[in-house]
Amino acid sequence: MEIWSVDRIEGNTVILINSEKKILDVPISFFSEPIAEGNVVIRQAPEKFSVDFEKTAEKKRELFDLQKKIFSDS
Fold this sequence. Notes:
Elements: E1 2-10, E2 13-17, E3 23-27, E4 40-45, E5 48-51, H1 53-72
Antiparallel strand pairs: 1-2, 1-4, 2-3, 4-5
C-alpha cells in the first residue's frame, strides 16, 4: 500500500508527495472523490487513489497541535 499526501492541485493534475519526498503527478481523474491539498491518499491500483479521511484528520490534528505549541512557547 502506497501512502501519499496531496501537495497541490494544478488544473487537472494532482501533485503527490510521499514520506521519502518522492513526487508523483497524476490526473485528477484517478480519484473517485473530491480531494484537497493536505489530504492523505492511498494508491489502490495503478490508476486509482482514495482519500484516507482518518489519516488526513490525524495529520491535521498533529499539525494544529504543533502550531499551538510553537505559538504558546514564544
